[in-house]
């Protein structure tokens, strides 16, 4: 669909360079079966001005943290600096995204969307307002280096103070497009409405312990917010209850969702407007999808 540049990463995965809203507007209704995505939470951090500063190491809205216990810390968006207008823009964007996704998803489709403790309430409410049913939250237990810092410029004066709690978890919203009738009827017609169990005897659970992305994956795909395959594959697999359908990632970035879908045998489409990430995904898709469980 559409004339945007694209790469068929495999027979099962395609990456399109496109504005999300423009691309979704060109799709017929009931085209996609699930969404798994890690969006730019504050939007402004991926505006050209601030993104260019990130790439040059100058910061902008991106905070360049100092080393901690000998570990070099990756840049983090400073969501606490968002203005009221930027917060309103964030709310409006995710509401519009929810409207666009509801039209192209089949009834009963699930949406898994990453957030963070600072912005999840706002983001999740915007999606509910657009018409999605909230079906819970998936909690990724992950020890990060976000937060826990002393007052900037006064670390020695206030050694007993931290400005924010050290983050040890990451919330993912779980949403579903409403459907008429029973779950069994919807599963028969569309193949959606529930989540795929881990095994016949073990349901999918809403807490996953998963450490930060390790060196090998970062070498393959040096994206600023890369999620690890050992986590993404579990989420992607759960999103299609019968293992049939098309997974969509609106913010495809380095292609990690597409690689996870390929690893579990699903069809997948991703979009992103950043051509440099498209190029990164072309190189990273094969190695990421080929990683074995023991390598993760």
TrEMBL record:
GO CC terms: cytoplasm
E.C. no: 2.1.1.-
PROSITE patterns named among the record's database cross-references: N6_MTASE
One Pfam family this sequence matches: N6_N4_Mtase
Gene3D superfamilies: Vaccinia Virus protein VP39
Keyword Transferase recorded: yes
Protein name in the entry: Methyltransferase
SUPFAM superfamilies in UniProt: S-adenosyl-L-methionine-dependent methyltransferases
Lineage: Bacteria, Pseudomonadati, Pseudomonadota, Gammaproteobacteria, Chromatiales
GO biological process, one term: methylation
Every DNA methylase N-4/N-6 domain range: 33-281
Organism: Candidatus Thiodictyon syntrophicum
Keyword terms: Methyltransferase, Transferase
């Amino acid at each position: 669909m559409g004339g945007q540049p694209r790469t068929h990463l495999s027979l099962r995965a395609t990456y399109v360079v496109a504005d999300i809203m423009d691309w979704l507007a060109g799709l017929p209704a009931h085209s996609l079966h699930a969404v798994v995505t890690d969006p730019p939470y504050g939007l402004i951090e991926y505006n050209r001005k601030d993104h260019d500063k990130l790439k040059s190491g100058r910061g902008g809205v991106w905070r360049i943290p100092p080393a901690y216990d000998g570990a070099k810390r990756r840049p983090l968006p400073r969501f606490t600096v968002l203005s009221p207008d930027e917060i309103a823009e964030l709310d409006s964007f995710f509401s519009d995204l929810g409207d666009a996704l509801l039209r192209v998803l089949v009834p009963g489709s699930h949406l898994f969307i990453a957030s963070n403790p600072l912005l999840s309430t706002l983001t999740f409410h915007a999606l509910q307002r657009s018409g999605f049913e909230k079906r819970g939250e998936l909690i990724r237990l992950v020890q990060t280096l976000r937060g826990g810092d002393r007052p900037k410029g006064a670390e020695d004066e206030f050694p007993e103070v931290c400005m924010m709690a050290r983050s040890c978890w990451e919330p993912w919203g779980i949403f579903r497009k409403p459907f008429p009738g029973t779950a069994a009827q919807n599963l028969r017609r569309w193949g959606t409405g529930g989540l795929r169990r881990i095994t016949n005897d073990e349901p999918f659970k809403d807490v996953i312990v998963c450490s930060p992305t390790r060196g090998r994956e970062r070498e393959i795909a040096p994206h600023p917010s890369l999620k690890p395959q050992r986590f993404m594959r579990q989420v992607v697999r759960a999103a299609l209850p019968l293992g049939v359908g098309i997974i969509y990632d609106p913010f495809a970035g380095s292609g990690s969702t597409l690689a996870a879908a390929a690893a579990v045998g699903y069809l997948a489409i991703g979009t992103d407007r950043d051509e440099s990430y498209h190029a990164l995904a072309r190189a990273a898709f094969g190695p990421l999808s080929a990683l074995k469980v023991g390598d993760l």
